[in-house]
Design a protein that fits this description.
8-stranded mixed β-sheet; Rossmann fold; alpha/beta
Length: 303
């Protein structure tokens, strides 16, 4: 796995597809890794002629870890975020957007279509707002503007997300617990086949496991606050995709995001929760295609 230094840290990354095609930068969500992107999704982008760039966010996968910052107290951080008290975070989402920009610099890619999922959607929003000259288009999937007053996760989804892994848990126990979490937050209209779900989880666990990084990323989300003013600065074409049945980031958050980006196109998918089930990959690719290929921009032209 290649490693590149960007924004002062090491980022693990992978590129695939047509090196002369439209560059597409994929940014994953909380605690997820570049291998968390479904293979059929990446392959679909490749078939559309794209140059696909995936990477591990800081504090996940094989990228730099911030263990020296310690593991935050999540219950206390949650209370502080609810009442509006300041949070001490190891970094902010804007730092993670700079990581992504630094990766493009190191790869010699001038501009890219930026696609983010969940926390990755938040990072992608910041990227598109702060680096318009580096952005061809923005796609924000199952994400939020972070505006105070928007509905939060259901009680079951919050409980599943905050549940710590048992100390010293074996691999199969970890897979069981994570599978249970994904069943809680996943798509009720498109249940992920159990073998597919467990294979995705096992691949991530076997590659890297960093629960402290997940906690630090959660605090980074809370500490980064409301992006509503930033969203108004986005000038590139924007696509917002959200599941009507998302229990972790309710659909109202996606609707709000689209309203705050001038000209954004919103697609709400019935039965979709907070995951990327194989049944929905063709539909997602079809929604993305006009944005990615409306004007073919080669990697060389993007530079």
């Amino acid at each position: 796995m290649p490693i590149i230094t960007a924004n002062g840290i090491d980022l693990a990354y992978e590129t695939s597809g047509n090196p002369d095609g439209p560059p597409v930068l994929l940014i994953m969500g909380l605690g997820m890794q570049l291998v968390s992107w479904p293979a059929e999704f990446v392959q679909g982008l490749e078939r559309q002629g794209c140059f696909v760039i995936r990477f591990d966010n800081r504090d996940s996968g094989l990228s730099s870890k911030f263990d020296s910052a310690g593991v935050p107290n999540l219950p206390l951080s949650y209370v502080k975020s609810v009442v509006g008290w300041p949070l001490r975070a190891a970094y902010l989402l804007s730092d993670m957007a700079r990581d992504a920009c630094g990766l493009l610099d190191a790869l010699g890619v001038g501009r890219a279509h930026v696609i983010g999922v969940s926390m990755g959607g938040m990072i992608a929003q910041i990227f598109a707002a702060e680096y318009p000259e580096r952005t061809l288009s923005l796609t924000s999937i199952m994400s939020s503007s972070g505006r105070r007053g928007l509905p939060g996760p259901t009680r079951a989804a919050r409980r599943a997300l905050m549940r710590p892994a048992p100390a010293g848990a074996r691999r199969e126990h970890l897979i069981d617990q994570m599978a249970q979490t994904f069943r809680v937050i996943g798509s009720p209209g498109f249940p992920m086949p159990e073998p597919v779900l467990r294979d995705r989880i096992a691949r991530s666990i076997d590659r890297s496991l960093c629960p402290g990084g997940v906690a630090r990323q959660l605090v980074a989300i809370a500490a980064s606050g409301d992006r509503s003013p930033l969203l108004r600065q986005i000038i590139r074409p924007a696509l917002v995709i959200h599941g009507a049945a998302d229990p972790l980031v309710p659909v109202a958050c996606g609707i709000d995001t689209a309203k705050r980006i001038s000209g954004a196109v919103l697609h709400v998918i019935d039965g979709m929760g907070h995951d990327l089930p194989p049944q929905l990959i063709p539909r997602l690719l079809a929604l993305l295609k006009p944005f990615l290929l409306s004007k073919i921009v080669t990697k060389a032209e993007a530079g």
